[in-house]
Design brief:
It contains 17 helices and 12 strands. It is α+β, with helices and mostly antiparallel strands. It has 2 domains: about 230 residues, Ribonuclease H-like superfamily/Ribonuclease H (Nucleotidyltransferase, domain 5, 2-Layer Sandwich); about 150 residues, no CATH class. Strands 1, 2, 3, 4, 5, 6 and 7 form a 7-stranded mixed sheet that branches. Strands 8-9-10-11-12 form a 5-stranded antiparallel sheet, with helices on both faces. A hairpin with a 4-residue loop joins strand 3 and strand 4. Helix 3 runs parallel beside helix 11 and helix 14 packs across helix 15. The protein is globular, with a radius of gyration of 26 Å. The chain starts with a helix and ends with a helix. About 35% of the residues are buried.
């Protein structure tokens, strides 16, 4: 803590110029400032260190997280856009008075590690929605806040502009989540810590972060040759409207009266859907996460329950419709449309919260695109998704009572049978 940590962690150990020149992705610079900018782009997020329940009721209440439903402490990670750990703040308590906004506000107002001396006007903070109450304070300091959009009261779906801007943020913000996961690979920090270790958690955490900064490569250490091109593409798409959404709503394709015919596995060969490679699909999704979820979504296409439907209409050529089962809620299905030509996918629209965006696509649309353009030609790529339901008891499974009472060897009186 005296000789090693101060050299590899904290705002004092690294200059702004070093972060900008060596630890900032060109993609983030192009999207949120410009490639020649002298603005520092930082990504912030809180993480969790789980602890035991305390016999001290005051501490027990203040360390209990209503979000995670268990006692914990909250460190605040501040990293660069490549995942280089600049500093870690805290850990803090976990009650409502110590949410992400409160932690950041406290750090700035108390000038922790002389943070106000390090940051400058026109710097960019990339955060999630939990920092919404810090926005006014940061703007007073001249800091630009990049945050995903909120659904307003009564709003079921982000509009195209909001969904596009949110995608620009998540394209950069994911690195801090990976850093949080990397820290938990140390078994000690990934388990529930005994309360006797609480005074030392700060030291342990800072030592681990220093080791990561010194000896491990950044989370995003891939080549960034295409960063500027990808950023320009995303910025250009963010200014576009969703033409297929407008077509669906104007022509009532989302109404019950619209006739669609189910396309089962036997009829898939008749669908003239373009055949694409996974690299070509990745260019459409502008990311890999949607491709990972596509396999799991697609595996439901082969179940006997028919959770996955692909629909076509004779009246509207070159458009497929589908119902995708929500991965979280059994009672919810999402309706989506994909328009295509002989070469590629031209537009898409889904009824989910983020489905109106044109900067990439949601996982539901990626599922249809991946399956129809690639997965149905490579069935082995779907077979790797195992269904373990049959190996576990299910109380909802129907029981066959077809056997007569005499066969089971049990004598019952008339009243008991009734």
């Amino acid at each position: 803590m005296e000789g090693f940590v101060p050299q590899h962690l904290g705002f004092a150990h690294v200059s702004r110029d070093e972060i900008i020149q060596q630890h900032t992705r060109p993609l983030a610079q192009e999207m949120f400032s410009n490639i020649d900018s002298t603005s520092a782009i930082l990504v912030l997020d809180g993480t969790y260190i789980y602890i035991q329940k305390s016999g001290n009721y005051t501490f027990s209440r203040r360390s209990y997280s209503l979000h995670k439903h268990r006692p914990l402490l909250k460190p605040m990670m501040i990293v660069s856009t490549t995942g280089y750990i600049i500093t870690v703040l805290g850990p803090y308590l976990a009650d409502a008075k110590n949410n992400d906004s409160s932690i950041l506000n406290h750090s700035i107002q108390s000038n922790t590690e002389e943070i106000k001396r390090w940051i400058q006007e026109e710097d960019v903070f990339v955060v999630d929605r939990g920092f919404r109450d810090s926005e006014s304070l940061l703007q007073d300091l001249g800091i630009t806040v990049q945050m995903p959009a909120f659904l307003q009261k009564g709003q079921k779906q982000l509009n195209t502009e909001e969904a596009n801007c949110s995608r620009l943020v998540t394209k950069v913000r994911w690195v801090v989540e990976s850093v949080n996961g990397r820290i938990k690979t140390w078994t000690f920090l990934g388990k529930t810590l005994p309360n006797s270790q609480i005074p030392f958690i700060c030291d342990y955490l800072r030592i681990v972060c220093s080791i990561c900064s010194k000896y491990r490569s950044p989370v995003d250490s891939s080549a960034h040759d295409m960063d500027v091109e990808i950023a320009c593409k995303m910025k250009a798409l963010a200014k576009q409207s969703n033409e297929l959404q407008e077509f669906v709503q104007e022509n009532g394709l989302d109404k019950r009266c619209m006739k669609w015919n189910s396309l089962d596995a036997a009829d898939e060969c008749t669908l003239q859907f373009p055949k694409l490679t996974e690299d070509e699909i990745r260019n459409l999704t502008i990311g890999v996460y949607q491709l990972k979820t596509a396999k799991s979504y697609s595996s439901e296409h082969f179940t006997t329950d028919g959770l996955f439907e692909v629909l076509i209409s004779d009246e509207i050529p070159d458009i497929v419709c589908a119902k995708i089962q929500s991965r979280h809620i059994s009672a919810k299905k999402y309706l989506l449309w994909v328009k295509y030509n002989d070469v590629t996918i031209t537009s898409w629209y889904c009824c989910c919260k983020n489905g109106a965006r044109v900067v990439g696509m949601c996982g539901h649309i990626a599922c249809i695109v991946w399956f129809l353009s690639y997965g149905r030609y490579h069935r082995e790529s779907i077979s790797g998704v195992r269904d373990w339901t049959s190996t576990v008891e299910d109380a909802a499974r129907e029981i066959d009572f077809s056997d007569s009472d005499e066969d089971d060897g049990v004598t019952r009186d008339h009243d008991e049978e009734e």
